[in-house]
């Protein structure tokens, strides 16, 4: 890798952070508009303590990081996906990965789980399957917004986003708050961004040379 200061693709880390701050703000405003929903704590029906919620999120995150590593080792589609992100992101420093992972983990989970899933489950659906209907619809929307510019090569990312959205949504449904999904989301993005940068970040420089 080059010794030059690594850059997290385009847009910059600052722009990405501002985007997720705006997304979090939008979730708060919309939640207030739709009846004063609390986007951080939904319920405490299962009486799960916060430290166990955080541990659950970390465990799920580490498991998915391990699965990603295995897929990258044994499947060509996963390596091609990594190359596509490498061409976009370039080299990623630990601090950049931390900022992006934290901003995206908080922003996306507060919006898609804290607001959207709770909205679907509590206001738009009725009956015994309302919670699961909300989970499914929020997960599908979450996945569909992870399409990317090159659908032919990026579609596995979209499928994984739907699956992860379902897992995050299930944790949110069980714990009743967004802590576990945020921790899991952060863990996956933090480690996978660095892995992509190490393995495929040089492709961005090679193509621009």
Describe the structure.
The chain has about 210 residues and is mostly helical. The chain has eight helices and no strands. Helix 4 (about 95-125) runs antiparallel to helix 7 and helix 5 (about 130-145) packs antiparallel against helix 6. The longest helix has about 30 residues, at about 95-125. The two termini are about 15 Å apart. Residues about 1-5 have low confidence and may be disordered.
Give the helix/strand layout.
Blueprint (H helix, E strand, L loop, with lengths): L12 H21 L16 H25 L1 H14 L4 H31 L5 H15 L6 H25 L3 H22 L1 H7 L1
User: How many DSSP E strands?
Assistant: 0
Low-confidence stretches: 1-7
Q: Which range does the strand content fall in?
A: under 5%
C-alpha termini separation: 14 Å
Q: Can you summarize the main beta sheet?
A: none
Structural class, from helix and strand content? mainly alpha
Rg over CA atoms = 18 Å
What attributes characterize this protein structure?
mainly alpha, globular
In a nutshell, what does this entry contain?
This protein has 209 residues and is mainly α. The protein has eight helices and no strands.
């Amino acid at each position: 890798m080059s010794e030059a200061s690594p850059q997290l693709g385009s847009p910059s880390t600052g722009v990405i952070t501002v985007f997720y701050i705006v997304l979090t703000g939008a979730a708060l405003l919309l939640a207030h508009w739709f009846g004063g929903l609390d986007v951080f704590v939904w319920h405490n029906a299962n009486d799960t303590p916060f430290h166990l919620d955080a541990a659950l999120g970390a465990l799920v995150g580490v498991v998915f990081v391990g699965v990603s590593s295995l897929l990258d080792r044994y499947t060509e589609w996963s390596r091609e996906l990594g190359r596509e992100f490498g061409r976009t992101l370039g080299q990623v420093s630990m601090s950049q990965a931390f900022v992006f992972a934290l901003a995206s983990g908080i922003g996306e989970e507060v919006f898609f789980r804290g607001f959207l899933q709770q909205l679907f489950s509590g206001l738009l659906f009725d009956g015994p399957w309302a919670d699961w209907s909300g989970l499914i619809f929020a997960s599908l929307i979450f996945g569909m917004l992870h399409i990317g510019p090159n659908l032919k090569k990026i579609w596995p990312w979209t499928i994984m986003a739907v699956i992860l959205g379902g897992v995050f949504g299930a944790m949110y449904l069980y714990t009743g708050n967004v802590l576990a999904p945020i921790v899991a989301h952060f863990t996956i993005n933090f480690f996978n961004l660095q892995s992509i940068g190490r393995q495929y970040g040089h492709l961005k420089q090679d193509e621009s040379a």
